[in-house]
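Technical annex B. To support the medicinal chemistry partners, we prepared a structural model of the target in complex with inosinic acid, based solely on the information shown next.
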Amino acid sequence: MTISKQYAREILQQAELLYSAEQVQAALQGVAQKINTALTETHPLVLSVMGGAVVFSGQLLPMLDFPLDFDYVHVSRYGDARKGGAMQWKVEPRENVRGRVVLLLDDILDEGHTLSVLRDRVLELGASHCYSAVFADKQHGRKKPIKADFVGMDLPNRFVFGYGMDIEGAWRNLPAIYAVKE
Ligand code: IMP
Ligand code: MG
Protein backbone atom coordinates (compact mmCIF):
# COMPACT_ATOMS: atom_id res chain seq x y z
CA MET A 1 0.00 0.00 0.00
CA THR A 2 1.27 3.43 -0.94
CA ILE A 3 0.29 6.27 1.36
CA SER A 4 -1.25 9.41 -0.09
CA LYS A 5 0.83 12.51 -0.72
CA GLN A 6 -1.26 14.46 1.79
CA TYR A 7 -0.64 11.87 4.48
CA ALA A 8 3.09 11.77 3.65
CA ARG A 9 3.27 15.57 4.03
CA GLU A 10 1.36 15.45 7.32
CA ILE A 11 3.80 12.90 8.71
CA LEU A 12 6.72 15.18 7.84
CA GLN A 13 5.05 18.30 9.23
CA GLN A 14 4.41 16.58 12.53
CA ALA A 15 7.83 14.94 12.76
CA GLU A 16 10.76 16.07 14.85
CA LEU A 17 14.05 16.88 13.12
CA LEU A 18 16.76 14.83 14.85
CA TYR A 19 19.77 15.53 12.61
CA SER A 20 20.11 18.15 9.90
CA ALA A 21 21.48 17.41 6.45
CA GLU A 22 24.79 19.01 7.53
CA GLN A 23 25.04 16.77 10.59
CA VAL A 24 24.25 13.74 8.45
CA GLN A 25 27.02 14.66 6.00
CA ALA A 26 29.51 15.14 8.85
CA ALA A 27 28.65 11.68 10.19
CA LEU A 28 29.02 10.25 6.69
CA GLN A 29 32.52 11.70 6.36
CA GLY A 30 33.44 10.27 9.73
CA VAL A 31 32.34 6.75 8.89
CA ALA A 32 33.95 6.92 5.43
CA GLN A 33 37.27 7.81 7.06
CA LYS A 34 37.04 4.88 9.46
CA ILE A 35 36.28 2.49 6.61
CA ASN A 36 39.14 3.87 4.51
CA THR A 37 41.58 3.40 7.37
CA ALA A 38 40.47 -0.14 8.16
CA LEU A 39 39.99 -1.50 4.64
CA THR A 40 42.73 0.34 2.78
CA GLU A 41 44.62 -2.85 1.86
CA THR A 42 41.53 -4.81 0.82
CA HIS A 43 39.55 -5.24 -2.38
CA PRO A 44 36.11 -5.92 -0.96
CA LEU A 45 32.79 -6.80 -2.47
CA VAL A 46 30.43 -4.15 -1.13
CA LEU A 47 26.88 -5.44 -0.63
CA SER A 48 24.25 -2.79 -0.18
CA VAL A 49 21.01 -3.78 1.54
CA MET A 50 18.19 -2.39 -0.54
CA GLY A 51 16.14 -0.34 -0.26
CA GLY A 52 17.19 1.48 2.96
CA ALA A 53 20.91 1.63 2.19
CA VAL A 54 20.47 3.25 -1.21
CA VAL A 55 21.29 6.80 -0.10
CA PHE A 56 24.05 5.83 2.33
CA SER A 57 25.66 3.61 -0.32
CA GLY A 58 25.35 6.17 -3.09
CA GLN A 59 27.01 8.87 -1.03
CA LEU A 60 29.58 6.65 0.69
CA LEU A 61 31.03 4.87 -2.33
CA PRO A 62 32.61 7.95 -3.95
CA MET A 63 34.37 8.65 -0.61
CA LEU A 64 36.08 5.26 -0.47
CA ASP A 65 39.64 5.25 -1.78
CA PHE A 66 40.37 1.54 -2.33
CA PRO A 67 39.26 -0.68 -5.24
CA LEU A 68 35.95 -2.43 -4.68
CA ASP A 69 33.23 -4.38 -6.41
CA PHE A 70 29.61 -3.54 -5.84
CA ASP A 71 26.48 -5.66 -5.58
CA TYR A 72 23.24 -5.54 -3.64
CA VAL A 73 20.80 -7.72 -1.77
CA HIS A 74 17.20 -6.85 -1.15
CA VAL A 75 15.55 -7.81 2.07
CA SER A 76 12.68 -6.21 3.83
CA ARG A 77 11.74 -6.74 7.40
CA TYR A 78 9.47 -3.88 8.11
CA GLY A 79 7.43 -4.09 4.95
CA ASP A 80 5.45 -0.90 5.24
CA ALA A 81 4.63 -1.23 8.89
CA ARG A 82 6.45 0.58 11.69
CA LYS A 83 7.25 -2.56 13.66
CA GLY A 84 9.73 -5.30 12.75
CA GLY A 85 8.13 -8.26 11.04
CA ALA A 86 9.37 -11.42 9.36
CA MET A 87 12.35 -11.08 7.03
CA GLN A 88 11.47 -11.27 3.40
CA TRP A 89 14.24 -11.90 0.84
CA LYS A 90 13.71 -10.30 -2.54
CA VAL A 91 17.28 -10.67 -3.80
CA GLU A 92 19.55 -13.00 -1.83
CA PRO A 93 23.34 -12.95 -1.58
CA ARG A 94 24.95 -15.17 -4.23
CA GLU A 95 28.14 -17.10 -5.10
CA ASN A 96 30.13 -14.00 -5.98
CA VAL A 97 30.83 -13.55 -2.26
CA ARG A 98 32.97 -16.73 -2.20
CA GLY A 99 36.54 -16.02 -1.15
CA ARG A 100 35.88 -12.28 -0.88
CA VAL A 101 36.15 -9.76 1.88
CA VAL A 102 32.56 -8.49 2.03
CA LEU A 103 31.42 -5.12 3.35
CA LEU A 104 27.69 -4.99 4.12
CA LEU A 105 26.03 -1.58 4.05
CA ASP A 106 22.72 -0.89 5.71
CA ASP A 107 20.82 2.19 6.77
CA ILE A 108 20.12 1.35 10.39
CA LEU A 109 20.88 -1.37 12.90
CA ASP A 110 17.81 -1.85 15.05
CA GLU A 111 17.27 -5.32 16.55
CA GLY A 112 20.20 -6.51 14.45
CA HIS A 113 18.26 -9.40 12.99
CA THR A 114 18.62 -8.36 9.34
CA LEU A 115 22.36 -7.81 9.45
CA SER A 116 23.16 -10.92 11.51
CA VAL A 117 21.15 -13.22 9.20
CA LEU A 118 22.81 -11.60 6.20
CA ARG A 119 26.31 -11.97 7.68
CA ASP A 120 25.65 -15.67 8.41
CA ARG A 121 24.49 -16.25 4.82
CA VAL A 122 27.49 -14.47 3.34
CA LEU A 123 29.92 -16.49 5.49
CA GLU A 124 28.05 -19.73 4.68
CA LEU A 125 28.50 -18.91 0.99
CA GLY A 126 32.26 -18.75 1.55
CA ALA A 127 33.15 -15.09 2.09
CA SER A 128 36.59 -14.87 3.72
CA HIS A 129 35.57 -12.01 6.00
CA CYS A 130 32.41 -10.01 6.57
CA TYR A 131 32.51 -6.40 7.73
CA SER A 132 29.43 -4.30 8.24
CA ALA A 133 28.78 -0.59 8.16
CA VAL A 134 25.52 1.06 9.13
CA PHE A 135 24.71 4.71 8.88
CA ALA A 136 22.77 4.63 12.15
CA ASP A 137 22.71 2.45 15.26
CA LYS A 138 19.48 2.58 17.26
CA GLN A 139 20.08 2.75 21.01
CA HIS A 140 17.42 0.62 22.64
CA GLY A 141 19.45 -0.93 25.41
CA ARG A 142 18.74 -4.54 24.40
CA LYS A 143 21.48 -6.91 23.32
CA LYS A 144 21.99 -7.15 19.55
CA PRO A 145 23.13 -10.35 17.78
CA ILE A 146 25.67 -8.33 15.77
CA LYS A 147 27.75 -5.24 16.33
CA ALA A 148 28.48 -3.16 13.23
CA ASP A 149 32.19 -2.59 12.54
CA PHE A 150 31.52 0.96 11.34
CA VAL A 151 28.72 3.29 12.52
CA GLY A 152 27.82 6.76 11.26
CA MET A 153 25.70 7.95 14.19
CA ASP A 154 23.71 6.70 17.14
CA LEU A 155 19.97 7.32 17.13
CA PRO A 156 17.43 7.20 19.95
CA ASN A 157 14.95 4.35 20.19
CA ARG A 158 12.27 5.95 18.04
CA PHE A 159 10.84 5.33 14.61
CA VAL A 160 12.97 7.45 12.29
CA PHE A 161 12.90 8.28 8.60
CA GLY A 162 14.91 10.12 5.99
CA TYR A 163 18.38 9.44 4.56
CA GLY A 164 17.19 6.19 2.99
CA MET A 165 14.87 5.16 5.80
CA ASP A 166 11.21 5.08 4.94
CA ILE A 167 8.03 5.71 6.76
CA GLU A 168 5.29 3.59 5.26
CA GLY A 169 7.27 3.60 2.01
CA ALA A 170 7.73 7.37 1.83
CA TRP A 171 10.49 9.92 2.44
CA ARG A 172 13.62 7.87 1.77
CA ASN A 173 14.71 10.90 -0.22
CA LEU A 174 15.04 13.33 2.70
CA PRO A 175 18.64 14.50 3.31
CA ALA A 176 18.04 14.84 7.08
CA ILE A 177 16.79 12.43 9.77
CA TYR A 178 13.40 12.83 11.42
CA ALA A 179 11.56 10.98 14.17
CA VAL A 180 7.85 10.41 14.34
CA LYS A 181 6.33 12.61 17.06
CA GLU A 182 5.60 10.60 20.19
P1 IMP B 1 16.67 -4.99 12.37
O1 IMP B 1 16.63 -6.34 11.70
O2 IMP B 1 15.70 -4.86 13.50
O3 IMP B 1 18.07 -4.54 12.77
O4 IMP B 1 16.08 -3.98 11.33
C1 IMP B 1 16.87 -3.34 10.44
C2 IMP B 1 16.07 -2.92 9.23
O5 IMP B 1 14.80 -2.39 9.61
C3 IMP B 1 16.84 -1.84 8.55
O6 IMP B 1 17.37 -2.38 7.36
C4 IMP B 1 15.82 -0.77 8.28
O7 IMP B 1 15.49 -0.82 6.91
C5 IMP B 1 14.60 -1.10 9.08
N1 IMP B 1 14.39 -0.15 10.20
C6 IMP B 1 14.70 -0.33 11.50
N2 IMP B 1 14.36 0.72 12.25
C7 IMP B 1 13.83 1.62 11.40
C8 IMP B 1 13.28 2.95 11.59
O8 IMP B 1 13.23 3.54 12.68
N3 IMP B 1 12.83 3.56 10.46
C9 IMP B 1 12.87 2.97 9.22
N4 IMP B 1 13.37 1.74 9.01
C10 IMP B 1 13.84 1.07 10.10
MG1 MG C 1 16.35 -1.95 5.40
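Notes passed to the chemistry partners:
The chain has a mean pLDDT of 95.
The chain has one domain: 31-158.
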